[in-house]
Amino acid sequence: MNLIQSYLFGQKILGMNSRNLTYIKPYNKKKWIRLVDDKIRFKKILEKNDIPTPQLLGSIASLEDLNSFDFESLPKSFVLKPRSGFGGEGIVVIFGENKKRTSSGERLWVKNRQIKMSETDLRNHIKNILDGTYSRNNTPDVAFFEERIQITKLFKTYAYKGIPDIRIIVFNRVPVMAMLRLPTKESDGKANIHQGGIGLGIDISTGVTTNAIMGNRFIDTVPNGRLPLSGIRIPYWDTILDIAIRTADVTNLGFSGIDIALDRDAGPVILEANARPGLSIQLANMAPLKERLEKVGNLKIKTVKRAIRIAKDLFGGEIEEEVAEITGRTVIGLKETVTITSALGEKKSVPCKVDTGADSSSVDAELVRELGFGQVFSEFEELNIPSDITHQELSERVKAIAGYNKLIQKKSFSLLAKVDTIRAGNGITVRPYIRLPFTIQGEDFTALCSITDRGHLDYPVLLGSKNMRKFIIDPIKK
Amino acid sequence: MLTPLFDFLLAGGVPRDTLVTLLMFPIVATLIVAARQIIGIKSFGIYTPLIITFAFLEIDIKYGAAIFITSLLVASMLRFMLRKLRMLYLPKMALILSITALTMFVILIEAVFSARTVVANLSVYQMLIIITLVEKFINVQIEKGYRTALILATETLALSSVGYFIVATPEVQEYIFTNPAIIIAFFFLIIFLGRYEGLRVSEYIRFRKLLGSRS
């Protein structure tokens, strides 16, 4: 790839300059950014709009609050967070409680990796939060407790300690790109990419993972394991898209990164909304983001359902490309368009039905004439085969057919490739075959087709299984 | 056209260096902006590399860089040692900054031994300015980890050094002094850079695998 090509492709990638100037500045008003940066207010707004999110268990805004806070009221497991924290900093996840209390009678909780935390330890951490250690610009902050999300069974084998989450970039109500983030040993159970988590690209239309990055490296399996990372089907995918869009709506952010976790019992829940989503999602998906943003920027989208449909139509399909890459075969649907090169070298595109039940392909007689291969009919007539054959005559005819085909070779016809019997309706007919140069979805191949009168059908060409070597058929694909 | 003003100020006892510093300011600022928006060198914001460039100009880059590196090393060590003590942020920073300031005696001793002429130039304010960088450095360490802090510090040092070599060049100083109107051009350059939407050089590298993909 030369410099100019790189530059041109670079136009499709979302960089920092363009993210800040073209998307964050005009679409995310300061007022609304402050709203999502304040995790407590954000949580309350979600609750008001019936969008699922981990429940708030209590908050501490000052040292007085801290002194009067009843630590006995806390459950066995919970998460402690700074209200205005970012990048996952300052978050303490408590997995359970020790049965024995400390010597001074305090409750003793268990953090990840079995690290114990007493009430005093928690108080110290809260003091640091209040002091603004984890907030932007180190301004004083508020600490709060929320329910801990329980990991779903599906993710247990993939995640190290923490909870995987799903990041969805929503722009102008459309979910344009998605990524599953897995916590690793390197990221100490946090799902953030820059802390060493794994990012998995997700096909928007199916919710199936595509490729994976760790740092800036591409990986195929979980670290130190053989579990493949692509092809994970994320459950509740449509619900996830739905709550992501609704969250973007209630936050009034035009361009946002919505983080969603899957709770074992509650299903998809909103973790947070980010007004300055990171850019590595492009690497995880191996797809440039700016190109997608430009596609949906001017659309007027009235309903959530429509937003989902647009996203699936415009940005789905990475899986197909992926399949094509692995198998070397192209994914096609049941209804395709075939381009045939005519006798004069012109290209003609006609609808084509993909029929896995048919052995060989067939093509409409009229189309063969249109393409300038009419000579095949005179060649066929030269053989003088009777038009109707009954069942009884079949066995004799099979021998006869072999004879005809020998004749075809001897006569060296230019177009007629062979003849064969075809059971059709009440009888049996002998049909001429022709080799035609086909192109379907960019794949070129020569198809041996029987010529029939398909004039009354919608599809002048039928692709049979003998000509499907280069393809994988997906019946759902349109 | 500004020459009469400059003459008046110089005659009134304003040091020439003061004028040069003020006039050079937009140039160094443009350099830092270009490094960020076009190349992708982040460093510690704009204030830190800017002020350190001029601190270097004041106390010579050799000692400037020495103070820069020493203070960051000392501060990192102190932070590591103080970890077990579990202190609140502000008091901890106060302790780190104070001890770092005291280690400047080492630099002073070295300066006295090597060349007496330099000692006079080792302005204590410039030294302190470089030391205040420690707070930024430690903040980044807390928020983004050692690696990022080290990268940003290296970038700051590199950027300030480039800035220093531009500002310290007598020809450049002379040129700006005689053609101060050229600064207007730098303002327009900054406006242009502030509206630049393209990928940064660092992003071309970061997304190089994407560039090779078909789409």
Topology:
The complex is a heterodimer of chains A (478) and B (215).
Chain A: H1 3-10, H2 16-27, H3 30-37, H4 39-48, E1 56-60, H5 63-68, E2 78-82, E3 92-97, E4 108-111, E5 116-118, H6 119-130, E6 143-146, H7 153-156, E7 165-171, E8 174-182, E9 198-203, E10 208-214, E11 217-219, H8 237-251, E12 255-263, E13 267-274, H9 281-285, H10 289-296, H11 304-315, H12 318-327, E14 330-332, E15 335-341, E16 347-354, E17 361-364, H13 365-370, H14 375-382, H15 394-411, E18 416-424, E19 427-440, E20 443-452, E21 461-463, E22 471-473
Parallel strand pairs in A: 14-22, 16-21, 17-20
Antiparallel strand pairs in A: 1-6, 2-3, 2-6, 3-4, 4-5, 7-8, 7-12, 8-9, 9-10, 10-11, 12-13, 15-16, 15-19, 17-21, 18-19, 19-20
Helix pairs in contact in A: 8-11
Chain B: H1 3-11, H2 16-39, H3 47-59, H4 61-82, H5 89-102, H6 104-114, H7 116-121, H8 124-168, H9 170-178, H10 182-194, H11 201-206, H12 208-211
Helix pairs in contact in B: 2-3, 2-8, 2-10, 3-4, 3-8, 4-5, 4-8, 5-8
